[in-house]
Amino acid sequence: MGNKSGRGIKRPFYSKKKEEKMFETLTMETQKVCNRCGKLKNLAAFPIDKRIIGGHSGICRQCKNSYYRREYRKDPKKLYLRHT
Tens digit of pLDDT for each residue in 44-58? Predict the structure, then answer.
């Protein structure tokens, strides 16, 4: 009780939040969350996209394929004309 400055508790130089953030960045280097399905997947599940800072698309291949299949069933000519 003789400590007048109120610094009687010794704490590490970083907080728990900072430690959790460091762990997130380490896992995010090899894994990513899909923006469409919300699942955590390996980077191999995401197509490469050089326009994005991380270098990989935000939507996994499985979600992207299901989207294009669904759109093709609606109107096959629409997708064909878009890519010509």
Answer: 999 999 898 888 999
